[in-house]
Amino acid sequence: METMARVLVVDDEPHIGELVGVALRYSGFDVTSVLTGREALNEVRLSRPDLVVLDVMLPDLDGFEVAKRIRETDGGADRMPVIFLTARDTTADKITGLHIGGDDYVTKPFSVEELVARVQAVMRRSAGSGPDAHRLSFADLVLDEDTREVWRAGEVVELTATEYRLLHYLLQNARRVLTRAQILEHVWDYDFTSNASVLETYVSYLRHKIDDGRRPLIHTVRGVGYSLREPR
User: Fold this and answer.
1) Could you tell me which of 52, 97, 188, 212 has the fewest CB atoms within 10 Å of its CB?
2) 200 and 220 Cβ atoms separated by less than 8 Å
């Protein structure tokens, strides 16, 4: 029998934890709920959930600090996906959450159905599609699909899971102009146009790691989207 994926819900408002828990259980997840950041870290150590839904404004450690500590203890194939669920909805907060390793950022008030869809999407991305032992390359940029390693001009480039998926999609479509809608659909598995700034944020991160100090390969096509190509 297939084992249910385990989700840890961290929110100091019990009714929200209960609401999210019921919806996720109905969708086939095994759910544990806690109220504080320290309880969350303890649960992570004890049971190693498959994904964490994490509030930011907690009574002891805030969610950003909890996520940082999770990221300090995981990595590689054992990386634990984190989805922030919070009333903190400024662009600065979203950038902070994504920069420290969040896989998604959902603001309150929220749709339970959308949150479940985002959990399912992040779980699919985390599971991956199995080994595929070949490389994608363009100019002096190389991506190994089997090991998930990336090099630029022979130097290793460290990417987060989402940065890797974004670069992978750009490499798969090198020289093509990809619309923002296409990238959102293929990299994030759903359309969240209202949060399209997330895409711009990740493109900025990727440029900093891939293009910084080198010949730029990631280009903005004004009014359309992005393209991986040689500079003109």
Assistant:
1) 212
2) no
